Amino acid sequence: MLKELDADSWVSERRSSLDDVSAPVRDIIENVRNNGDSALYEYAKKFDKIDLEDICVSREEIDSAYEEADGRLVEFLIEAEARISEFHELQKREDLWLREVQPGIVLGVKTTPLERIGCYVPGGRASYPSTALMTAVPARVAGVSEICACTPPPGNPLTIVAFDIAGVDEIYRVGGAQAIAAMALGTESIKPVQKIVGPGNTFVTAAKMMLRDYAEIDFPAGPSEIGIIADDSAVPEFLAADILAQAEHDPNSACVLITTDRGTAEATIAELKAKAGISPRKEIIFAALENSGYIIADDLADAVSLSDMIAPEHLSIQVRDPMSVLNRVRNAGSIFVGPNTPVACGDYASGTNHVLPTAGYARVYSGLNVSHFCKTSTVQMIDREGLTEISDIVINLAEAEGLHAHADSVRERLKLRK
Amino acid sequence: MLKELDADSWVSERRSSLDDVSAPVRDIIENVRNNGDSALYEYAKKFDKIDLEDICVSREEIDSAYEEADGRLVEFLIEAEARISEFHELQKREDLWLREVQPGIVLGVKTTPLERIGCYVPGGRASYPSTALMTAVPARVAGVSEICACTPPPGNPLTIVAFDIAGVDEIYRVGGAQAIAAMALGTESIKPVQKIVGPGNTFVTAAKMMLRDYAEIDFPAGPSEIGIIADDSAVPEFLAADILAQAEHDPNSACVLITTDRGTAEATIAELKAKAGISPRKEIIFAALENSGYIIADDLADAVSLSDMIAPEHLSIQVRDPMSVLNRVRNAGSIFVGPNTPVACGDYASGTNHVLPTAGYARVYSGLNVSHFCKTSTVQMIDREGLTEISDIVINLAEAEGLHAHADSVRERLKLRK
To answer: Where is NAD(+) bound in this sequence (chains A, B) (predicted)?
Structure first.
């Protein structure tokens, strides 16, 4: 059950080395590079035990996936998609803004979507139609023209439906490192993409890291985590429920309860003891709880510092005044404020994205959002008045750097003699 | 002199392979990893022919760099810094925005700066104090607490002054791949950074790409480029001046003139013939013009399509109605609109950043900006009303994915029975 933890060592233990898989992943990449589609069929047989007829999921197959799926779940996916779209629309920036910073000098930024991206949705221990929404919706909202998606064969019907609801243009039955290689390098069936997003196991993550020269990625992501900041006002039943929800994801998932109140930690552990054993996923939960623990903080400021060191993928704030804690937090993938905001809401339906950096990467990376699918160009528009105003700086700094033709390009406009 | 070009083949030729340098760069990285500072002193001696006493530039040395530098140039750097700061301040997003998307469901985004970043400024063929400003100012504007900078020994005084003006906290005399390794991995003197930005030669770029697991980077950047879209209203003298300014950077620089008017191309070539030979950097210019050329476009729409294929680092628009061309452009690092906006202005003083993606990478990457030094956390705050509203979706999708404890974490709040 939860043990007392040290924040520092916890983070270093979360970074799983990709070295163990780098040799097989390199082989997979080379096979896909050299043999294209035929390597994908080979791996479907080898890893997924399936003799595929076609890696591409046809329109007819998408339509039958709708028929096969529970109609009520399809409705829920449509509703979830609408909520996720709504929040991601709020993130969009104007296509072009321009500002006259001084007479004759107009500066601005133009934002344009990427042209073609790839979503990866794992099969693995469960099927994840929610992840199909989370990876594809921000790309569609950003305005990406071609969204391609891969998921391991045979392809879960609800996942295929979710891709379709999200607006994916092409769906392929390809899993693992071979899916990443196919989207990054291209095959006969799959055109290469500019960026690949979505979670996966260490093979998928290693392939994403190795192929960044070909296709940019969102960020490295590993097993799921929760950090909770709680004071003595927190409800131990809620804390335990959120910990169990995180723990059931994967044996390598981890949970850290940071609390100013030892009694709250003890009551939460008692609650976990009572409930962990009755879950249908209890083996996974018990394994994940081995990676988990609690930390007693001196006060809430200390709790935030500890949490910032850990930079949890999900941070739940269950204290009397959660806004004051929110204001101090620096490092977290997604933040859940108050007792009635279980992480599960963000996983499915509040509208925020659940593709988030883990293992301390939230110190550097943002969770998946619309800006992952856009790039910006700066813009400047200068007239003779503006050019005259800055000509001295440009000419002199250019000459100081030995770039005389730079200086001349200004002189030529103003017909200045050297 | 400029030859007629094909846009497609041009792009593939711009991506210089990093394979040639990967073995020596790997050795440098391992040496820095294993031997820390002593490897840095060793390389200063070997590559820069300098017996360094200290890799760290002291406050006293910064002060004497100010004294050594031309006072007028220091004033110009201060003025350029103010303009760059002003434009980058306009890019900042609010620290936290929250929106009630429906009763009881508040969503938002919290933006926080990175904690520690590294700037690299090359020495090479020229000294680049302007690049010191361009790399450090966006980080300072973003609110980064610790900005560290490396530049090859002995360290150009004006570059050191520029780092100081920009608000850099630590300056080190380290160049090349070893500087990237030191900032990514850390040594006795240099604490590791979260992200490394700034241009460099193939050694520097290869090291940045190899060390992305340790420190994120801005983007791969190679030799400088200009694309120009011109119609028959363009002034050939201005076109030639901008081409020469680009060509003087590096023998591998490249310039592409895309014009709807063959006469404009011919007049520009005549102008280049007249002027290229009288430049003090003529060897570099002639070499760069070998990589350069012109394309005759059917019309301006075709010109924009060709330019988008090339995705030039700098795009100059010199046509009758430049705004209509600007509105169509998708792929370019920085866009210079109209006849009186030479690229040189953006290199030094308009306020936009000159650290930009090259070799077609502008299709995927943004030029350096404030968001490179920030990350975001999504925020959600739900009350019982909001939770009740979305509980059906969350519970049902969670159960469909086999994640029962996720469903329970909602039920527990609402005290719903299964």
So the answer is: 120, 178, 201
